[in-house]
Write a structure and sequence with these properties.
alpha/beta, Rossmann fold, 7-stranded mixed sheet, two-stranded antiparallel sheet, 42% helix, globular
Length: 235
């Protein structure tokens, strides 16, 4: 709802929070959760959708803390959350805040399992926190199995770096735009109409149909767990 020329080919953050809340409550059987988030529209949006759904399911929020994105010390917030004896901490932050938070949790002896959002698909987090990240769980959009040719080409482009979950979707976004522009040219109104009319476009990562708000109509997720620095999928 950001404007009629704005589209996104990843699921809405609202869906992610709801999915995570259901997973934590019904799959992990956690009834008491603490919330930790950075102060940004994205962090607060995902956090709030999780909170509303978790409480709707009968879960209890034992504490809720926030921190500025440029914070380098969130020990005070962590001590408060620890005192509530949560069964799990739902932690929504970008890369740098996540690195700091995960390290300081271990430093303070916060032993509750930690569940994160899709920003945790950034490999830099797990390379930086090392053993401090063991046991962490997070959710990210589910991509189709990527063709080996695509993965190899991306690694060549990035100098051998692992690509995260969003690289294939960025590729798909450009391909959708190029496909529409092949007939619409550079007429922005025609481009907009062409994207809205996109239905069941088969991309590298997903199939895409856009709704009236410019969002994709499907939302599926995968849950991942960190063990010894390696990322695995929880089936």
């Amino acid at each position: 709802e950001s404007g009629e020329f704005i589209f996104r080919n990843v699921p809405s953050d609202a869906f992610q929070g709801v999915f995570a809340a259901n997973y934590v409550k019904t799959k992990l059987n956690k009834n008491k959760v603490a919330l930790l988030k950075c102060l940004s529209d994205w962090c607060m949006g995902v956090n709030d959708s999780f909170k509303a759904e978790f409480q709707r399911l009968g879960g209890v929020i034992t504490g809720e803390e926030a921190f500025a994105q440029d914070s380098r010390d969130i020990r005070g917030q962590l001590v408060k959350l620890k005192s509530g004896a949560p069964e799990l901490i739902y932690f929504v932050s970008y890369t740098e805040g996540s690195i700091i938070g995960l390290k300081q949790m271990k430093e303070l002896g916060v032993n509750a399992p930690v569940f994160g959002a899709d920003a945790w698909s950034d490999p830099k987090i797990w390379e930086s926190v090392k053993e401090n990240g063991d046991g962490a769980i997070y959710v990210e959009p589910a991509n189709k199995s990527l063709p080996a040719s695509f993965v190899d080409a991306m690694k060549t482009k990035t100098g051998g770096k692992e690509i995260n979950v969003y690289a294939p979707r960025a590729y798909d976004a450009l391909k959708i735009l190029a496909s529409v522009m092949a007939t619409a040219g550079t007429d922005t109104e025609k481009i907009k109409q062409g994207i809205y009319a996109t239905a069941n476009y088969q991309g590298i990562a997903d199939s895409y149909t856009f709704d009236k708000n410019g969002d994709i109509t499907n939302a599926s997720y995968v849950v991942r767990k960190v063990k010894s620095g390696k990322i695995g999928e929880i089936k």
